[in-house]
């Protein structure tokens, strides 16, 4: 049920926003290698994911099987998260996810099984659950929590 997924997402936001805001700039900007993202870039990636999923959750309610994909590496590079104020990136992530909570709560249950293609066709219900799993996975990376099994 999307209302339960929305509640889970909201709980995750409230649980972790305080800790994210206490991470030092040095910790957020550290890149383990040139090919790896920093913690700030991971948070930025989560903001990009939120933006793309907002579009999916809305468009799939009124279009038949929209095709909505994005290149995560190109988005992180194009936005330039590594050069932005960390507080702004964290706030962006938080506010976009608050919007997702609202959208998920407003989706009529008749639309739960509407489909959006993201490489493969998936229902809105599946996409929402997968979105939360993806968010948990990356939050565990950023906050150095026990590894979260994803997928």
UniProtKB/TrEMBL annotation:
SUPFAM superfamilies per UniProt: DinB/YfiT-like putative metalloenzymes (SSF109854)
Residue ranges of domain DinB-like in the record: 19-142
Domain of life, per lineage: Bacteria
Transmembrane feature ranges: none
InterPro entries: DinB-like, DinB/YfiT-like
Pfam families noted in UniProt: DinB_2
Name of this chain's protein: DinB family protein
UniProt organism field: Terrimonas ginsenosidimutans
